Amino acid sequence: MSDITTLSFEEAMRELEATVGKLETGEATLEEAIALYERGAALRAHCEARLREAEERVEKITLAANGQPAGLTPAEGL
Cross-referenced InterPro entries, in alphabetical order (predicted)? Predict the structure, then answer.
């Protein structure tokens, strides 16, 4: 398994969907199901963090008077 922190949002979502699919089949042993659940929870948290980062970047886009993007405003605390 790859390190979750290195996954893109899309990669993490695909893996999360596959993990949920494996859990839904009910074919995993108890230990496998626990490991899948833990990995799924970590993948979900990673996806949520990536979405938050993207939302913050979008919120910081500044617009020129004509409504066109003019650049980015640095996020607070950076």
Answer: Exonuc_VII_S (IPR003761), Exonuc_VII_ssu_sf (IPR037004)
Predicted TM-score (pTM) of the model is: 0.74
Q: In this structure, what token pair is assigned to residue 34?
A: 């626990």
Number of domains in the chain: 1
Q: Is residue 12 predicted with pLDDT exceeding 50? A: yes
DSSP assignment of 27-69: -S-HHHHHHHHHHHHHHHHHHHHHHHHHHHHHHTEEE-TTSSE
Domain encompassing residue 65: 4-72
Helices 30-59, 9-25: inter-axial angle, 10-degree rounding: 150
